[in-house]
Design a protein that fits this description.
Blueprint (H helix, E strand, L loop, with lengths): L2 H8 L5 H29 L8 E10 L2 E8 L2 E8 L2 E8 L5
Antiparallel strand pairs: 1-2, 2-3, 3-4
Amino acid sequence: MTPEALVLQQTPIITASYVMQVIVSLIIVLAIIYSIARFLLPKLKLPTQGRLIQIVDRIMLEPQVNAYIIKVGKKAWLIASSNKGIEKIDRVEEELS
């Protein structure tokens, strides 16, 4: 056997520095996944399509207070939503497309 082969047989393949590199890499990957899930995904605002109910427009009035125009069939309503509840404000008479 060559001297290099004897050295490889005597040293372990998995060393403490290798384990530390794997752990640090795992922490970095988990931090990237957490950052994407926490900050990027909520900003995408993926629209949901319903057959009967549509959200025509939405505006943020204050933090945790939103106003929506919701259309059901040919009728539309202005609705306010907050962390305390939901309230119908008025029916919208204009034709919405």
